Amino acid sequence: LSARVTPDITRVSSADTEKGDIDVRIKYYYLQANTPDFGPLTNSAVRVGQQQFPYLDFLENVNPYRLQGTMFQERFNNFDSADMGLGIQGFFGGAMPQDYQDRVSSQYAGRYGSYHLAVMNGGGYHASENNNNKPFEYRFTARPLPELVR
Length: 150
Fold this sequence. Notes:
Blueprint: E1 2-12, E2 21-34, E3 41-52, H1 54-62, H2 72-75, E4 82-92, H3 98-103, E5 113-120, E6 136-142
């Protein structure tokens, strides 16, 4: 069992605040429980709380040139980077060898790929919920030939 708390600091510019005010919000706060392997689904974890959206989390970790600021999907209001919800993520078929994780990346290092499923609240981490919609988002990645194409 583990937990994460990550603050987010932003400059606010709206009609009801003075221009230039600094606002501190909590972007991520969740509990994570690692679960036992279930057949080909390995290295799984269940998260409850305010967490990353599956697709955006993947983009942030595979983009080596990302600097400070928001990702493309968030900048153009397609979705937020975090929201309250329940998610499960893990690998297909175990993890890649340690030398791969050391030399290439330990993120999403599933032998045959990885997955992330989440049901989110919909308001994002900096807005109130406006309706009763609960979006379901998922991400699957595949590595069909892990020995040949790492």
